[in-house]
Design a protein that fits this description.
By secondary structure, the protein is of the alpha/beta class. Helices cover 54% and strands 18% of the residues.
């Protein structure tokens, strides 16, 4: 009876998670169809909320946007002994090196065990990544809109996505590893 009860609980939890992931996918699609200037401006904040719900759905404790003195932090999570500050951008163009440097400075002001996750729906330009990492180490990993879609579609879990990105950054110095490459290898 105990095993049956436990199995039912797991089934219910999996069904609830699948339903939540479907809602997040629907929300992301709705955000991507923003037409008015107000909707376009709002979707950056909506992205921050979507990320919070995505992490919570994967049972990773997530702190929603907050301010520390003069800095805005879009989110925070703790994963495998490291704290991660999140920067989330939904703009028409990929971020410039200066945008990445802002997160890097925020991370550097915190404990040594702090890292960064920069989420840019528009992706990243190779020359910006090159300049950002040239001659320096980085404690930031990058996630783009295509990565996020793969997670939302259930092709890879958020945990597996983080593991792969962290592994590539730690072992090979690749801070931007598009998850789609995982499927082509």
């Amino acid at each position: 009876k105990a095993r049956t009860s436990e199995a039912r609980k797991k089934q219910v939890a999996l069904a609830a998670r699948a339903q939540k992931m479907q809602q997040l996918r629907d929300d992301f699609v709705a955000m991507s169809m923003a037409k008015s200037q107000e909707e376009i401006q709002r979707r950056g904040y909506d992205l921050e909320e979507l990320l919070a719900q995505l992490f919570e759905t994967h049972e990773i404790t997530y702190r929603r946007p907050y301010r520390v003195k003069n800095e805005q932090i879009d989110g925070h999570f703790r994963y495998k002994g490291f704290d991660y500050l999140v920067e989330a951008k939904w703009r028409a163009k990929p971020p410039a090196e200066a945008d990445l440097a802002v997160l890097k400075r925020k991370v550097e002001k915190k404990l040594e065990s702090t890292r960064g996750l920069f989420v840019s729906i528009a992706g990243f330009r190779p020359e910006v990544i090159y300049e950002f990492t040239r001659g320096e180490s980085s404690s930031t990993i990058l996630m783009d809109g295509q990565d996020l879609i793969l997670v939302l579609e259930g092709q890879i879990s958020l945990v597996d996505a983080l593991e792969l990105k962290i592994q590539k950054a730690a072992q090979e110095g690749i801070i931007y590893f598009p998850l789609a490459q995982r499927f082509s290898q």
